[in-house]
Design brief:
It is built from 16 helices and ten strands. It is α+β, with helices and mostly antiparallel strands. It folds into two domains: 169 residues, Nucleoside Triphosphate Pyrophosphohydrolase (Alpha-Beta Complex), CATH 3.90.79.10; 277 residues, Endonuclease Iii, domain 2. The protein binds iron/sulfur cluster (SF4) and zinc ion.
Length: 495
């Protein structure tokens, strides 16, 4: 029987605290009338921002905010990339279809580059053009299309969400950020805000990685953006800035600026529409002035003063300004835990002379946790020291396939794959069975999505470990000598 494994790598959805459930007015066009923001919550956020931080981080007045919005939006109107989800959302009048088009793109874009997503998005929307189509797909089909995008729970949750909308919400996507986040699986604060603003015109700000970078630079925020207080300030700033007439476009513009101008390493400040309001840029210019030219008593607030080390938005005194980084001094890199190390023993159990062609045993992972519901070579988590590895693996194999000849189990090499929080070393074994092997479930190896996502996999074999790294390879290449390339499709249970 299948054993549940430790759930790892999952992203826990934050619950909202707001009790607001009012549906906002829907729009028939992304540029039409905005909905009314939740005034009370917004005022509270602004009060928090203003009461607790230095004026250095705030916009001077509403005129400055207006200049920021207008500059950013007119830049966006000229420079925005023509992306399939934008075209689809802009041309769609049906609100649920429009929300679906945005939802799919936002989920795919989490942790994944635009260039990679385009092709997946196009295939997805061709295969499942509506929420109803997605709701009736199988998880197997969803995983298959998702293969290579990584973070597989995203696809599964997207489908769960579609099923919920179709089965429980009358086919209608919730119309506000608050209800989206509360009712839909896998929809967190960012995704909810993006769908609500882009598809429904709700005036709600969003903060993703690009926006964090832009806002930290624009406001000169040097503290760790993953810190709760800093994150609250960033959401509050985003809410303050979002354009009430074009909230969806504004949010996309802020993200677009981060993606193509205010990039992580080499931002193009000379092409930036908000350069005149950017604290990071001002700081760079000031640092470049010879000391004799710095103007004392400048009319602008040019520093967060006094910097006693108490300010929660300043860079810590232990991390002084680095001249060589320029504006890229912001945002401060979040302190990241190194991935936890795990070890797994896995086996390609092969039946080379099975009737109809060679067969291999693939088994399905549990429906929760890492790579949930995907197919894999049977594997078992083992002690990294390597002790009892063979025994544990053999036991796992026998659970699936019945008694096996232990002496045929050969160690082939190892594959290291880094997931978001786990560095997993697979000790790879092979075992070839005679033609009349016990009954076991088989599945065609080439259909497995697991190997194709191995952009970050490093492969080594006992004979190649001393050689230079063979670079990025996928599991099926690693096993090619063992797999006939013209193997027929083998699904279901075979004898
Ligand atoms: S001026 Fe430079 S650092 Fe500031 S927002 Fe624009 S691109 Fe980013
Ligand atoms: Zn400060």
């Amino acid at each position: 029987m299948k054993k549940p494994r430790a759930a790892v790598g999952g992203r826990r959805r934050k619950q909202t605290s707001s009790g607001e459930e009012r549906e906002k007015h829907a729009l028939s066009s992304s540029q039409a009338r905005p909905t009314i923001p939740d005034g009370q919550a917004r005022r509270q956020e602004e009060v928090v921002l203003q009461a607790s931080v230095s004026p250095y981080y705030q916009f001077r007045d509403t005129a400055e905010v207006t200049v920021f919005r207008e500059s950013l939006l007119s830049w966006y109107d000229q420079k925005k990339r023509d992306l399939p989800w934008r075209r689809r959302a802009e041309g769609e009048v049906d609100l649920d279809r429009r929300a679906y088009a945005v939802w799919v793109s936002e989920v795919m874009l989490q942790q994944t580059q635009v260039a990679t997503v385009i092709d997946y998005y196009t295939r997805w929307m061709q295969k499942w053009p509506t929420l109803q189509d997605l709701a009736s797909a199988s998880l197997e089909e969803v995983n298959q299309l998702w293969a290579g995008l990584g973070y597989y729970s995203r696809g599964r949750r997207l489908q769960e969400g579609a099923r919920k909308v179709v089965g429980e919400l009358g086919g209608h996507v919730p119309r506000t950020a608050e209800t989206l986040q509360r009712l839909l699986p896998g929809v967190g604060r960012y995704t909810a805000g993006a769908i609500a603003s882009i598809a429904f015109g709700q005036v709600t700000g969003v903060v993703d990685g690009n926006v964090v970078r832009v806002l930290c630079r624009v406001r000169g925020i040097g503290a760790d953006p993953s810190n709760t207080f800093v994150s609250q300030q960033l959401w509050s700033l985003a809410q303050q800035l979002v354009d009430p007439a074009r909230p969806g476009d504004f949010n996309q513009a802020a993200m677009e600026l981060g993606a193509i101008v205010c990039t992580p390493q080499h931002p193009h400040c000379s092409q930036c529409p908000v350069q005149s309001l950017c604290r990071a840029h001002q700081r760079v210019e000031r640092e470049q002035l010879p000391a004799s030219q710095s103007l004392p008593g400048s009319p602008d607030v040019e520093e967060c003063a006094p910097n006693t080390g108490q300010c929660q938005l300043c860079a810590p005194p232990t991390e002084p300004w680095d001249q060589t980084l320029g504006v890229a001094n912001f945002p401060r890199k979040a302190s990241r835990k190194p991935p936890r190390e795990e070890c797994s023993a896995t086996c390609v159990l092969e039946q080379p002379r099975a009737p109809g062609g060679a067969r291999i045993l693939l088994v399905q992972r549990p429906n929760s946790g890492l790579l949930a519901g995907l197919w894999e070579f049977p594997s078992v988590t083992v002690d990294p020291s390597g002790r009892h590895q063979r025994k544990a693996l053999l036991q796992e194999l026998q659970n699936w396939a019945g008694p096996l000849p232990a002496t045929h189990l050969h160690h082939l090499g190892q594959v290291v794959h880094t997931f978001s929080h786990i560095k997993l070393t697979y000790q790879v074994y092979g075992l070839a069975l005679e033609a009349q092997a016990p009954v076991f479930r088989v599945y065609e190896g080439q259909q497995s999505g697991t190997g194709k996502s191995s952009k970050r996999s490093q492969v080594s074999t006992p004979s190649s470990r001393k050689k230079p790294s063979p670079g990025q390879q996928v599991l099926d290449r690693f096993f090619r000598p063992h797999l006939p390339t013209d193997a027929p499709r083998l699904n279901g249970v075979a004898q």
